[in-house]
Amino acid sequence: MSQPKTYTAFQGPRTLVAGAGLAEILAVLEAAGDRRALVFDDATGDLVKPGPPPPTAAPTFASLALRLLPRHMDWLQAQPGGASAAVRRLIDAARRSGEGAQRQAADAAYRFISMVAGDFPGFEAATRALFAGDAAGFAAATAAWPADLGAYAGKLAQGAFAAPVTGGAAVTMVGDQDR
Q1: Residue range of the domain that includes 87
Q2: Do residues 164 and 109 share a domain?
Q3: Which of 84, 111, 133, 176 is positioned for an S-S bond with 45, CB 3.0–4.6 A?
Q4: pTM
């Protein structure tokens, strides 16, 4: 079973609210009269535009043209189920591997820091450390950033590093007091 999607809302450098359910996050912001908040998807680092969540869509299938050398095509066609099945299995295996997950975490953190910290001191060093898998370098580069933004960037980047990101301030999320 998959985890529910979670979101975090910021106004400037301050965390306003975080939790599951985009509708709930947007309702809290609407009740507070806050129309300037930026809401981010905690899994992807994507900026979420306010509005109702999209309906769940049925899976779609796409076609992709690949240019392969004859030896690659011969190998693919010799696999059980043919070339398409072999490519799907290779993709699924890559997605399950740690390397794929590390890249997804790095990409999510990069999307977030590009949106909110592109002009902060240490942004370039943080980006280099992020994609080099250097947790200590990332923590050092983001140390001078506003606490909530640095902590959230570290949270998103966590899976990109073999070692945990240390340092930065802890973030108390609005709504956590009710639990």
Answers
A1: 67-96
A2: yes
A3: 111
A4: 0.65
